[in-house]
Amino acid sequence: MDGYLIAKTLHIISSTVLFGFGAGTAWYFWNAHLTRDPATIASVGAMVVRADWIFTGSSGIVQPASGLWLVHLAGYPLDSSWLVVTLLLYGLAFACWAPVVWLQIKAQRLAAAALAEGRPLGADYERTMRLWFALGWPAFLGLIAIFWLMVAKPDLW
């Protein structure tokens, strides 16, 4: 197999893992949150944080590396408009994802503390989850736009 096919395979697999685990962990954490049960939130939250670090984090590194490798092998200029917008959107997605992971850790710890103390979730937990929810959307929509840009490679300017 030549270098281009290896790079393309890595890129497709890493994009699938990045998007799939990102959407999947968000889905499970949000549904745990909807229960308002500290035990459920603490348990699911711990798994979500681990999955985000292991799968989303590692694929988030492989994705731009394999993408730049593909760009190089295919001979696309780095200032191609579709590529510039893709990189900007990827930066936006990362800028949202990094605090989302921290917010997941915080929400999970707040739920664990509420469970240990036998009290309901407090206002700090609710604020944390509102911010988590708000930051998730730009990352999710940004990745969808990136998929389109990678496939269509439009001349935007």
Structure description:
- With 157 residues, the chain is mostly helical.
- The protein has one domain (3-152).
- It is built from four helices and no strands.
- The chain has helices at 3-35, 38-74, 81-117, 123-152.
- α2 runs antiparallel to α3 and α3 (81-117) packs antiparallel against α4.
Share of residues in helices: over 70%
Major β-sheet profile: none
Distance between the termini: 35 Å
Please provide the ordered H/E string of secondary-structure elements. Answer: HHHH
Note the overall shape: elongated
The helix/strand class is mainly alpha
Q: Total number of helical segments?
A: 4
**Could you tell me the mean pLDDT?**
96
The share of residues in extended strands comes to under 5%
Count of spatially separate domains = 1
Taking pLDDT < 50 over at least 5 consecutive residues as the criterion, the unreliable ranges are none
Radius of gyration, in angstroms, nearest whole number:
18 Å
